[in-house]
Design goal:
single chain; alpha+beta; Nucleotidyltransferase, domain 5; 3 domains; 3-stranded antiparallel beta sheet; two-stranded parallel sheet; 5 strands; 37% helix
Length: 227
């Protein structure tokens, strides 16, 4: 080598290993975790298949809670799981009924009880109702849950008829495509629509007692639960 030496620089580093929680939080903060995938998405069919049960035994009959099947699948494949706090939330007053059952499929609908009466198509929204939102609920929620041949009775709310007159025919056509029928109530007919009496009483209650509540929402909740 003629007295000369080759100098080799050796750089060592210690890899930082994150915990599952640290990895998840890092990704949620749009930073770079130590490995990917952080939380790969997984179809619910996979946890159901790992239980060894038919799909409807988990989804419909709940022989194994879906959240337990999901956690078991995450452990089976060895990756970080992501389970929302509201995953598979149970509603004690909600019942599932079988509409059609064949060897290949089961079609169901859910019915919720309110004051002892079963209702379908319940939907909560925090914006102003308009025809587009109403039609979306009508198709994606109501027509999906009711039986073929059902008769739907609607009042003449501005959302349904007046503001967009052609919407009346749109709703009729949508119902006919689902094998149902729509009947519109005559204008100003509270005797055919008892809920109108409830709205009138609610307005009177709000007018007289609103000062006793911190918010309109508290007043409305009190009316329906205690008044």
């Amino acid at each position: 080598m003629g007295g000369e030496y080759d100098i080799i620089a050796v750089i060592s580093y210690k890899r930082i290993i994150m915990t599952s929680k640290e990895r998840m939080i890092t990704a949620m903060l749009n930073k770079q975790p130590d490995m990917v995938p952080v939380a790969p998405d997984m179809s619910n069919m996979i946890p159901c298949r790992l239980t060894g049960l038919p799909f409807w035994d988990v989804y419909l009959y709940r022989k194994v809670p879906l959240w337990k099947a999901y956690i078991k699948a995450v452990k089976y494949f060895g990756f970080d799981g992501w389970l929302p706090a509201t995953f598979e939330m149970e509603y004690p007053d909600e019942n599932t009924y079988i509409v059609e059952k064949t060897p290949e499929k089961i079609i169901t609908r859910k019915m919720e009880k309110v004051n002892g009466k079963e209702i379908v198509g319940r939907c909560e929204y925090t914006c102003n109702m308009n025809s587009k939102l109403f039609e979306l609920w009508f198709v994606e929620v109501l027509l999906f849950e009711i039986l073929k041949g059902s008769v739907i009775i609607l009042d003449r709310a501005r959302t349904n008829v007046v503001r967009y007159r052609h919407r009346k025919q749109v709703l009729k056509k949508l119902a006919e495509q689902a094998g149902c029928r729509v009947i519109f109530l005559p204008a100003y007919s509270p005797d055919f629509n008892p809920i109108e009496h409830t709205w009138a009483n609610l307005k009177t209650f709000i007018k007289n007692f609103m000062a006793n509540f911190s918010s309109l929402n508290d007043a409305i909740n009190h009316y329906f639960h205690f008044a």
